[in-house]
């Protein structure tokens, strides 16, 4: 039971939604507008480090947090569902947090590597992988070893890399 969700539903005509990932980032349904909590003049940009409310453009609903955990199987859940409702609450704001470009590059690399390994793993299972794709997998796995160990690839073999892996990567 989530009391906040029940409050957001209000009457029978008020709909409450939960947000789900979509396959295509170019879909108009993935567009949200930032509404700053501080007074701004005209269409000024929202400053870094401020708090914002998020409005979904297609449904004209506001994003709200819920107390329903997504990672229920974890001993201490930290991820919760997000919902959207027509009710706009001033106290329901999200912080804009600066993320370094290095961290964004790391996340992009990890995401891309995961996708390539998934696709090539499927080809490996059905026996349709080519010699070039095998070389790609070996190179990618080597790059992942250096990435996780936070070591520059200076020509050494990846299995000879010493140290402790960075579990956050």
* Largest sheet report: 6 strands, antiparallel
Tally the helices. 3
Assembly type of the chains comes to single chain
Globally, the shape reads: elongated
* Intertermini distance: 35 Å
User: Helical content, roughly?
Assistant: 25-40%
**In sequence order, what are the helices and strands, one letter per element?**
HEEEEEEHH
Find the count of extended strands (DSSP E, 2+ residues): 6
Mean pLDDT: 85
Over the alpha carbons, how many angstroms does the gyration radius reach? 22 Å
Low-pLDDT parts are none
**Strand-pairing-aware structural class:** alpha+beta
How would you characterize this protein structure?
By secondary structure, the protein is an alpha+beta fold. Helices cover 31% and strands 18% of the residues. The protein has three helices and six strands. Strands 1, 2, 3, 4, 5 and 6 form a six-stranded antiparallel sheet that branches. Strand 3 and strand 4 form a beta hairpin. The two termini are 35 Å apart.
């Amino acid at each position: 039971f989530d009391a906040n969700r029940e409050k957001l539903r209000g009457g029978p005509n008020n709909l409450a939604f939960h947000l789900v990932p979509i396959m295509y980032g170019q879909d108009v349904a993935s567009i949200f507008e930032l509404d700053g909590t501080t007074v701004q003049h005209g269409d000024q940009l929202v400053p870094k480090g401020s708090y914002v409310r998020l409005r979904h453009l297609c449904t004209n609903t506001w994003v709200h947090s819920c107390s329903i955990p997504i990672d229920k199987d974890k001993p201490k859940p930290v991820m919760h569902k997000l919902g959207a409702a027509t009710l706009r609450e001033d106290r329901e704001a999200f912080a804009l947090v600066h993320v370094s470009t290095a961290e964004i590059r790391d996340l992009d690399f990890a995401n891309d590597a995961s996708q390539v390994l998934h696709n090539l793993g499927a080809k490996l299972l059905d026996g349709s992988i080519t010699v070039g794709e095998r070389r790609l997998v070996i190179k990618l796995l080597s790059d992942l070893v250096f990435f996780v160990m936070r070591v520059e690839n200076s020509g050494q073999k990846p299995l000879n890399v010493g140290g402790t892996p960075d579990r956050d990567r």
